[in-house]
Structure formats: structure tokens, C-alpha cells
Design goal:
This protein has 223 residues and is mainly α. The protein has 10 helices and no strands. 29% of the residues are buried.
Amino acid sequence: MEDNISAAFVGDDLFNTYGPCKTCVKECSNAELLMLVMKCVNFAAVKHKDQRRKDTEETPYINHPIGVANILIQEGNIYDPPVILAALLHDTVEDTDCTFEQIENEFGKEVCGIVREVTDDKSLPKAERKRLQIENASKRSYKAKLVTLADKLYNLRDIEKATPVGWTAERVKEYFKWSKAVIDGCRKTNFTLERELDLIYANRVARDREVCGCKKMSLSKCH
């Protein structure tokens, strides 16, 4: 990890503060941060151990949260520890038996708060959850928006590589359209991630138009 990742967790109960000023906090060494990140990776891996992605190869699900965290660091130049930990944990409550209480106990209030912001309420119908993601995207904190952008970027790239098992072309098209609506609510958060997302969406739209054009041409020839 780069040296600038050894910043303090301001306001996080994992670290001791020495006064009311936000600069009066304990700084983490690289060793402490490495230990915490590996603890988080292991925690997420255990929670997701029986899950697979929807690709034809049934990729282990843990590849996804690790990939989201990697996008934030490698492409978004984000080195804020709570954001990276939240990225690793962002699907644990939504998709496993993990609870917010567990995350708070293990990784602190700030990390838990970010995870809470990006977690859907699975008691609601899927259509309502998707609607709420669009509606609430702009209301999320800066750190939660970062996780959202990286999550969408990973998923869209995955779909570009291979259509998920059981998905129709129409479902893929609707997923891209829905993702763009969520992304639009997270604008002015990270230029690099937003640019990559815009490029993927633009390429998808261009390909869809080409397909439509081919269909129209073939139909006209039939007549």
C-alpha cells in the first residue's frame, strides 16, 4: 500500500482520539492498516464462501468485493481506509447472514455507516429496491457514492465480458439503463470512475443502435 493510506480513521471507534480536534487522533502505521485490511478480506471471504457470481464460470463471489476495492484504489486513487473496508464489505449484510452490528463491532461505526448506505432492504420487492437506489443515490454520502460507482463499474464490465446466465438481451439493456440512472445521482464524486462508466454506457448504446440498424436493413430487404 502507498504511504498516503496511513491516514487516521477520524471519528472511528477503532482508533483512540486525544481531543475534540479532528487532527488529534492516533495515526495508523502501514502494518496496522495492512492487518486491518486483511482481517476485512478474510471476514468478507468467510461470509461469501458459498456464493458464486452469475457468469458461466460461476466465479467465486468474493472476487466482486475485492474487485470493487481494487477499482477504488487503482483507478479512483482512493486511499481512505473506511471506504476501502466498506467496499470489501458492501454486500455482506445484503447477501449473507452478516449484520450491521457485526460490522460495527469488527470495523467501527464509520465503515458500518457506509455499508448501511449502500445496502438494499431485501424485505422490499426487487422493483422497489431498484427504484429506491435511483431515488437515494444523490442523498448518499461522498464515501458511499464512491463505493456505488466502483460497484456499478465492476458489474457493467462483468456484463460486457459475458452475459449473466439466464439474462436476455433486454434484461442487459435494462440493467445498463438502470445503472446509468443510479450513477447520475452520484455525479461530481470521482471524475475517473464516472468517465469509465460513461464510456461503457456510450459503447453499449452505440452497439445497440448498430444492432437496430442491421435489423431495419434486413427487414427492408425482405420487402
